[in-house]
Amino acid sequence: MEVPSNIAEILDRLESAGYEAWIVGGCVRDSLMGIAPHDFDVTTSALPEETERVFAGMRVIETGIKHGTVTVVSGGEPVEITTYRVDGEYRDSRRPDSVTFTRSLREDVARRDFTMNGIAYSPKRGMFDEFGGAGDIHNGIIRCIGDPEKRFHEDALRILRGLRFSAALGFWIEDKTAAAMLGCRELLNNISAERIFAELSKLLTGRRSGENILRVMSCFREIFAVMIPELRRIFDFRQYSKWHYLDVYQHTALAVQSAAQLTAGKENALPLTLAMLFHDIGKPRCFTRDENGEGHFYCHAAYSAEMADRILRRLKCSNALRERVCSIVKYHDTQLKDDDRTVRRLLAKHGERLACDIVMAHIADDLAKKEEARRRIPEWYAVIGRIHRLAPECCFTMKELAVDGNALREIVPPSPLMGRVMKHLLKKVVDGDIPNEREILLQEAAKYVAKRGII
């Protein structure tokens, strides 16, 4: 395992002072998987005050000294060094009431969540893998260290971490661990909305989430229903539609997975995957069937957007992300056509970024439907291409018009009518009926006023 020089220096200092020192957790896991780790956590047999003495002369921050963590700035980067510890009782399913320091690495590792995160490494001592984490990584398995129920009662957020790892890494969850996740799911009600939303966001945008979200959402739907109880109404909700072959929940899960595939590593990954999670959540509220038995969901996009807004507020989502997600949901089934007029209007209403998000939602939605719907996808990609071509040259606001109120004074005096004239000119330009050129706009304004017999 390749250890950065600043981390190696920390390990050497502790070892030279007579203490054990290891890197542990996700950095070791990622290295074993061939993924370059970004964060390195160090654990040591040194007590916090002993750690501070070892690094006297360097910048030391007592970030979490109560729980044994000292931060040392090495190589210009903060590195957390934590004393081996044993956790006390967990009464809130989140944090231990107390911690006891220990000189035993095994006791420290035994309190951690999953075997793959319970591996330690030292350049001098080699690898410590008491609980078989390397084997589980090799076999693609997520398994709790010790009793799974105890691990989840200690920290219920581990349930979501397990799902997130399963989606992001493509690993299967071992049977006892999976059963305990489901059995302990109500403990998630003890976790703050912010922490829930953070884990959900990582689950939706993980490295391999585009391959695994459908499986995770299908196998653990009852856990998703604890996070978002509104999802329960779309479980097994049959659509009776010529476009659909899945119930609403399964369609939703596949649409989320499709969105994750389409946006992997991109800026719009989280907005689009969240939007697809909520895009059909309002369908049960507006379900009808016609005389032929065909199912219809009139106004479901608007209902879904309203529900998404309430859910995201409850989850403490940022305002900017919430508004973007809800806009995608509201317009995810708007009528689209690959022509200049349609695209100009789309750009005028939403702007380039959101317009592309809305079209991407059409693609993710259709990827989760029957073949007849998937045939429309090439046209949606053509619309995105047209959006990018037209966006730089289009005029979308009155401020961008080549005329203003002063230029129109000779045609129409300042009044509510002037506002109507400006709106008319903007619509003509957006629709591509006239170019955004001063003389042509003045001529069009004069025609508009004369036609109404005002002058």
What does this structure look like?
This protein is an alpha+beta fold and about 450 residues long. The chain has helices at about 5-15, 25-30, 50-55, 105-110, 135-140, 150-155, 155-170, 175-185, 195-205, 210-220, 220-225, 250-265, 270-280, 300-315, 320-330, 340-365, 370-375, 375-390, 405-410, 415-430, 440-450; strands spanning about 20-25, 40-45, 60-65, 70-75, 75-85, 85, 100, 120, 125-130, 140, 170-175, 290, 295. Strands 3-4-5-2-1-8-9 form a 7-stranded mixed beta sheet. The chain has a two-stranded antiparallel ribbon with strand order 6-7. Strands 10-11 form a two-stranded parallel ribbon. β3 (about 60-65) and β4 form a beta hairpin. α12 (about 250-265) runs antiparallel to α13 (about 270-280), α13 (about 270-280) packs across α15 and α16 packs across α18 (about 375-390). The longest helix has 28 residues, at about 340-365. The N and C termini lie far apart (about 85 Å).
Keywords:
455 residues, alpha+beta, 7-stranded mixed beta sheet, two-stranded antiparallel sheet, 13 strands, elongated
Topology:
Blueprint: H1 5-16, E1 21-24, H2 26-32, E2 41-44, H3 48-54, E3 60-64, E4 69-74, E5 77-83, E6 85-87, E7 99-101, H4 105-109, E8 120-122, E9 126-128, H5 133-139, E10 141-142, H6 148-154, H7 157-169, E11 172-173, H8 175-183, H9 193-204, H10 209-219, H11 221-227, H12 248-263, H13 269-278, E12 288-289, E13 295-296, H14 300-314, H15 319-330, H16 340-367, H17 371-374, H18 377-390, H19 405-408, H20 416-430, H21 438-451
